[in-house]
Sequence to fold (114 residues):
Amino acid sequence: MNENDLNLLLENGLITPTEYDKLYEMNIKIQALDTMDEWLKTNPEVENRPVMDVYAEYRIWCLKRKKPMINAIAFGRKIKQKLGFISKTKTLYGTSVRVYIKEKEVDGNGFENR
Fold:
């Protein structure tokens, strides 16, 4: 549902201003998730890269295109869901940073499958 549809519903008394605000917010969040999927199609380099660097690239990509963006927590969840990466702390150049690594499969006994 786009903003014009919401305005039409509001103008015709089919939703209240409060409902309009809630639907508008939900619509922005859906657009941001769609934007994340669009960004993922560009095949960004993720593995062994600092989490904040990858998220910053995504934000810049969104800003250049004037697209809505999701927050860092939702971004990390989407990276795990779509690409299978999790974040782990590593030491890079003497500093601890979180980087994305491929999530390893674990069997029912807690052992890694290779």
In short: The chain has a mean pLDDT of 85. The chain has one domain: 3-102.
